[in-house]
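tool_call: predict_structure(chain=1)
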Amino acid sequence: MDASQRSSLSTAALEPRRRLFRPAFIAAAIVSMVLLLVPFILRLDGKVHADWQQFLGRFHPLVVHLPIGLILLLPLLEFAGRVRPALREAAAFVLSLGVVACLVAVALGYLLAYGCGDAEPLVTRHMWGGIALTLAMMACALVRPVWINGSLPWSYPAMLACVILLLGWAAHQGGSITHGENYLTEFLPGPLQHRAGTDTPNAKTLPIPGSFYGKHVYPALDAKCVSCHGESKVKGRLRLDSYEALMKGGKDGAVIVPGQPDRSLLLQRVTLPITHKQFMPAEGKSPLNAQEIGLIRAWIADGASSTATSVAGVTVHEDEPVPQVADYTALQPQIAGVAKTAGVTVVPVSRNLRDGLILNTVDASGAFGDAQLEKFEPFAPYIVEVELARTGVSDAAIGILARFPHLRAIHLEETHISGTGLDQFTHLPELTYVNLSGTRVTAAAVAPLVSMKTLRHLYLYNTPAHPAVAVPVDQPTTRKSP
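tool_result:
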């Protein structure tokens, strides 16, 4: 067989693949155009849209892990395919499945952002990262057959490397949405933090000490609103973590109109019915209470000054200074180790370590019980808040928590607590907040808490004690059960 015949046979063998390549290329071009045009046609405008979009979109965090796994599997299959050719066929299937999974994940993610009106920069970057990753995956699927035939030997490996890089970047943006922009860098070793520049805190305009804004307005916004309108998350282009940002407003304009509280959008949103789509704070976060709203209203009516130390017609009885905990710097590695073993997080209340620590079990949920809580007892003098909602703790946890001398807030909602031993909490001198909603506590069990002079917040919703508990009218309470 001469060279011309071999060339003819080779061309004939490639012809079916070429016929398949053309429609695949056309389909990829159409899908790419749709992916690139949708963000400009259906803009993320910060407005809440249909509920069905949010319902479907909430499957995005579940579905998005499928393409991640498939993409990371691809290089392994391609490398192993050099030894076992059958794995090359498996790689082709995984690549096709990965393209489909990327398309589904992008569609659900866009429905989630568009439906709930989330247009913050992190969400936008995550969206474009997902789109770029999907386009790169489709390019890999188109280039791979050419690479298999020996043409363009570096085309597919180069594209696959780009896919891995895009995956890392898009995943980082997604993680930053839920965990903050410093999620990956927060616990870098010291030398690496210095090189990355993450050991120097970002400059932030703090309230003027002693001002009415600094003592009453800023703390309320910081506790209830900044998680969605702060440095790591900026919904509606509105930040509330500084006076300057608050007065600047967001995409809907100014949210504070000095001297005119009824025209101030911030007050309008926080006083809407809790079921209203524009009620703030959204997503089930704790709303501002009547006292906080009243102080903000009075502050706006008086001119919304950042420096004034008082507001006309408002007298506020100052709370006692919050006690500081001892220095636990040397124990931080040990605390982090116990937290990692238990699958929880222990974070400082603020940058001032003497303000204490918060034990947060949201990532552990039902896997966290009394035995795991007991392991934190050596660090009890430094923990000021425990968030044990929806964990597996029982009444035995009450006795353990009673040995945490600086506890100020205890979250036990939707646990197996029945209330036996709740009187032990009366010996915690700094305790101001207890949430027992969704538990089996009775009126008799919580009676000792009701009589506590320091306790200002007691939540008993959906318990046998609600609405049977009568709270003294002269006791300073917030959203307590009647």
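agent: Confidence is low (pLDDT under 50) at residues 5-14, 198-204, 468-482. Proceeding to next step.
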